[in-house]
Structure prediction request, 331 residues.
Amino acid sequence: MNLHVSRLYLLLLFGLGLAAAASLHMGLRIYDPATVLAALRGGTDSDALIIVSLRVPRTLVAAVAGAALGLSGLLMQVATRNPLAEPGLMGINAGAAFAVTFGIAHLGAASLLELGALAAFGALAATIAVFGIAIAAGDAARPATTLLAGVTVAGMLASLTQLLLLIDETALETLLFWLSGGFADRGSDLLRLGVPSLLAGFLGTMLLAPALDALRLDDDSARSLGVRVSTVRLAALALGALLAAGTVAMAGPVVFLGLVAPHIARWLQPKPAMATLAITTCLVGAIVALAADIVARLIVAPGEAPIGAVLALVGVPTLIALLRQRREAVL
Prediction:
């Protein structure tokens, strides 16, 4: 690891710690450091209860979700060579959300294990559907084709999810807040879904990193280096779907994080190896998620803005800029 990368990691870790500390201090009520420290040391007053039972889980969920979605987006972008790929735009989040909604409304799913399994199944099924449509269109290599297939699948699954909720009013009351995506009022037990998927996705990425470095060139070059291109691509997409599924089961469908975090990481660390880029992306994703969550608490205080709306302020301009770059490259 060179000196530049070490300094970057230290800077990002400092930023992550700062964002986490701000998350514990800021909200409808802004606490001073002494109050937060007293709560973390085992305080029992009302302020300590709010900090320990609400803000600590919220901070941890946001950090894990941001890291997982950032890494998921990176894997999808590398596997497809599509800079626009990310779990929300590719329909992966919608697939996981539909599966969880169907399981709760019609299968009686309630345990964390059942919700995690449903989210994983839905995410993988949506991934297969998106790339199946792109391949059937005969132009799967073009980013615009894959993106259009993802948006189509996401729209269809979102409509089906809304239909399920309209049919079952009990499920509507239970799931409407969760389906909006966010980190508020998430219990720490949900980390049992998000943390294992993040660890599995990260370890899988580290194992695939040399092959993914070759895959970033082109298929022929990767094959000449002994890489099984189809196997590596499918494994990377499966890991990306798993990461998105864990996040959806934990925090609902959160959009644009998977698009923004990898591109910020590439800007901070131009042309890095896949292993170091994955670490940078996880750290950036966690910081962006925490920052967006803090803004969501403050921007319309005493209310709270949807996290998706806050992330869209960064994600939509990023998407437009990427589309313009692709258009200029073609011209």
